[in-house]
Amino acid sequence: MEEFKKELSQHFDLYKVEVGRFIEEENITLTKDGKRLMYIKAFYGRKPYWKEWIELFHIDPAFFSSELEDKLYGIISKYFRRVFVEYYEDKQTLEELKAGKPPEETRLGSKLKALGYTYLRDWYYPEGWMEGGYKLQAER
């Protein structure tokens, strides 16, 4: 999805973009001012069978609660109906979920809900061994 990468590159540096496991998937290393922010796995969909999704992981803790966080989620919400955000380094969201707060009421969940994502799920225990760490799933 070239439009997504074009808009993303207006605010961030796409340090590395590689083909993923499938032709419709890309792995992106996102940086800003020479500092790595995170890795992105973007699946652009395979119509009519699979819808697009994006996963953000190995996120720099300084990214959370920053202006860059809001900017990135705003861009993502234009192109992806399913989003996965690893929250292990988001200490506030992690503590809120541990305390029993519903995902949509956490710091991270509230941001995603405000962008139109209505279904939120906490993947505290990802299934299998390839799904990565703790993450929130948001869909619309």
Give a nutshell description of this structure.
The chain contains four helices and seven strands. The protein is an alpha+beta fold and 140 residues long.
Written description of the protein model:
- The chain has one domain: Aminopeptidase, CATH 3.40.630.
- The chain contains four helices and seven strands; from the N terminus they run αββββαβααββ.
- It has helices at 2-9, 67-79, 91-98, 107-114, and strands at 13-19, 25-32, 35-43, 53-57, 82-86, 119-123, 135-139.
- It has a seven-stranded mixed sheet with strand order 1-2-3-4-5-7-6, with helices on one face.
- β2 and β3 form a beta hairpin.
Q: What radius of gyration results from the CA coordinates?
A: 14 Å
Named CATH architecture: 3-Layer(aba) Sandwich
CATH level-four homologous superfamily name: Gcn5-related N-acetyltransferase (GNAT)
Instruction: Flag low-confidence runs.
Output: none
What composes the largest sheet? Answer: 7 strands, mixed
Can you tag this structure with a few keywords?
140 residues; alpha+beta; Aminopeptidase; 7-stranded mixed β-sheet; 4 helices; 7 strands; 26% helix; 31% strand
Layout of helices and strands:
Blueprint: H1 2-9, E1 13-19, E2 25-32, E3 35-43, E4 53-57, H2 67-79, E5 82-86, H3 91-98, H4 107-114, E6 119-123, E7 135-139
Parallel strand pairs: 4-5
Antiparallel strand pairs: 1-2, 2-3, 3-4, 5-7, 6-7
